[in-house]
Every structure is written in structure tokens, then in C-alpha cells.
Design a protein that fits this description.
Layout: E1 2-6, H1 28-45, E2 49-51, H2 57-61, E3 69-71, E4 81-83, E5 86-89, E6 106-114, H3 123-138, E7 143-149, H4 157-161, H5 172-175, H6 178-194, E8 197-203, H7 207-213, E9 223-226, H8 236-245, E10 248-251, H9 261-268, H10 283-289, E11 295-308, E12 313-326
Helix pairs in contact: 3-6
């Protein structure tokens, strides 16, 4: 079974999202936003408010075990939606989504995270699925910029400062050969040719990795997004190389492995902070929890941002996370 988790628009308010005041890589926004959206859907479907002085699973999941009022956790089937072999968590009401103004008033950026241990052969299908999810969510026909994040590829400012070091092919992505990265890029180029994507971008590519990749790119990346841990100082060699190649440098604080399997199981499990979608791992508890049984494996995560051009304001921002549940 395919599981599609969504945050909806995180700019719409609700429970506050905790953001770390550092440049440390983090998946805090993703995890907190998913939990907030799950809880909102549960509360919306719950018809029986519960007054309690104890810490029920529902009140703990709500983040306040001392609260005087809580709600009895409803069955997950009441706030999710299954279509064929796909379960949407929570159910998505397309009539409530979309952009407020004309499409031309926005810059829409999408970042796609390919996850570790997922065969590169799946990336073509994952890329098309991720883009389709965002297009439907925002009710648009195209996006302005797609940035892709490859597993195991991490920018290191210290390596840049060392100058003419040999290219390190030790990451999990590079160890599979440059062919997998180029093959993935061909899928992006096809979407660009169709007009679905206006510009393409990379994440965590230093000057050496860029130099090895660019000769194979028919559509050159317009953006290179990097995480800088040292006070946001971009190394000079990378600045010069990017300027020479016409690549804009942007910074971020996303994790490369943004959704580990353990984190996903905690989000969906039947524990104190889980949504009750997945059964407990122990067989005895699984029969009583009412959740789905099986092993869950994250496939990809996609983040989207819609910025109003003339005001520079983020109007719509959210995530989709797609996983497979296997018996």
C-alpha cells in the first residue's frame, strides 16, 4: 500500500512550528507540520470531546498532558482516505487548496528529496509523482524552479577551502556512479522540455562535484542550494565557480535524509505521539491497536513554496511525504 502524508499549508496558522534559531540541518518543520495536520484532521473528525485529568494517548499527542479537555482518538479511517491501494494521511480536500491570486503573481519553488536506500531506478516515477502532487495541491500547470537533493551528497565548506583536492567519490550517491545522477537529471530535463518546470537546481553540490556534473547536463542547473554551517559564509572557490558558470547560490537548513524510517514509524504509530495509523510492532499489541500491519519505508519527500512576487511573502508552503507499506 502507498501512503501519502501531507502537511497542507503550514502558513495557515494552527499550532506553532518550532524552528531552531541556527543553521543546523533539521527536519523539525516537516515532522512538526505533519503532526499538526494529523491532529487537526483527528479533531475535526472526532465527535466525542473527553474531559479528563489523566494523560490519555490523545492528550499526549496533543502536546499537553495536563490539559483539562482532550478528545478520544478516532479511528484513523475516519480522517484518512483510501483510493484503491493509496492511503492519504490525512484525507485531502482539493476544494480548499490552490493559490489566492493569478498564477503569474507567484514564484513557485519545489524541492524534491530522494531518500537513502531507495533504488535510483525509481527516481523517474518518484519525480513525476512528486510534481503531480504539487501541481494538484496548488492548482497550477507548472513550477518555476525544481531543486533536487540526492542521498549521501553533502556539501563541505572545508573541502572547498583546500582548493585543488581530488574529487571525492565516496558518498553513497557517487559510489553508484555518475550515471545514476545523470539518468535522474534526464527525467528533469524532459519535464523542463514539456514546460512543466522552468528552471532546474541542485542541492549540496560543491565546485568539484559541479565541475564533474555540468558536462553531462543538457539543461544546466540555474541554482545550487547549499547548507553552510559556519555563519553562512560561502567558500570563495564555490562563489567564483558558480559566477563563472552562471549558477545562483542559495542556502538552506534541510536534512539530506529528511525522513528516516524510525521517524516515520513514530509519526504514524500507535505510541504516545503517533497518529494510530500503523499497528504496534509486537504481535499481541498489533491485534488490539487497530492499525495497519507491515513494514513502512519512506520513498521521497517534496517541499513546495509559493511566494507572492511583488510582496516577497510566502503565501503557501507545505510538504508531501510518500511511503510504501509492505506486509
Amino acid at each position: 500500500m502507498k501512503l501519502i502524508l501531507s502537511t497542507s499549508n503550514v502558513m495557515n496558522g494552527g499550532s506553532p512550528i518550532i524552528r531552531r534559531p541556527t543553521v543546523e540541518k533539521s527536519n523539525t518543520e516537516l515532522v512538526a507540520s505533519l503532526r499538526t495536520n494529523f491532529l487537526a484532521a483527528e479533531q475535526s473528525s472526532s465527535q466525542t470531546p473527553l474531559t479528563t485529568g489523566s494523560s490519555t494517548p490523545s492528550s499526549i499527542y496533543n502536546g499537553d498532558p495536563t490539559a483539562k479537555t482532550a478528545f478520544q482518538r478516532p479511528p484513523f479511517r475516519s480522517w484518512t482516505q483510501q483510493q484503491d491501494d493509496t492511503l492519504y494521511i490525512p484525507a485531502i480536500d482539493r476544494s480548499l487548496h490552490g493559490l489566492a491570486e493569478e498564477r503569474s503573481q507567484y514564484d513557485v519553488t519545489v524541492k524534491l528529496f530522494y531518500l537513502p536506500k531507495i533504488p535510483p531506478s525509481r527516481r523517474c516515477a518518484h519525480t513525476k509523482e512528486a510534481i503531480e502532487l504539487v501541481l494538484k495541491e496548488l492548482r497550477i500547470q507548472s513550477i518555476d524552479l525544481l531543486i533536487v537533493s540526492f542521498p549521501g551528497v553533502s556539501f563541505d565548506a572545508d573541502d572547498e577551502d583546500e582548493g585543488d583536492e581530488e574529487y571525492d567519490a565516496g558518498s553513497s550517491e557517487d559510489s553508484q556512479g555518475a550515471d545514476t545522477t545523470v539518468a535522474t537529471w534526464r527525467t528533469l530535463e524532459a519535464l523542463h522540455a514539456e514546460g512543466t518546470i522552468a528552471q532546474l537546481g541542485l542541492s549540496e553540490f560543491g565546485s568539484q562535484r559541479l565541475a564533474h556534473f555540468l558536462p553531462y547536463a543538457k539543461v544546466r542547473p540555474s541554482v545550487d542550494q547549499i547548507n553552510v554551517r559556519d555563519c553562512c559564509v560561502v567558500p570563495k572557490p564555490l562563489i567564483l565557480f558558480a559566477k563563472q558558470e552562471g549558477i545562483e547560490l542559495l542556502t538552506h537548513n534541510d536534512c539530506t535524509n529528511i525522513l528516516p524510517t524510525g521517524t516515520l514509524r513514530d509519526l504514524l504509530g500507535s505510541g504516545e505521539k503517533g497518529a494510530g495509523v500503523l499497528a504496534e510492532s509486537r504481535e499481541a499489541d498489533a491485534k488490539n491497536s487497530g492499525g495497519l500491519e507491515g513494514e513502512v519505508e519512506p520513498q521521497f519527500v517534496v517541499k513546495y513554496t509559493a511566494v507572492v512576487k511583488d510582496r516577497g511573502v510566502i503565501e503557501n508552503k507545505g510538504y508531501f511525504a510518500v511511503a510504501e507499506l509492505r506486509n
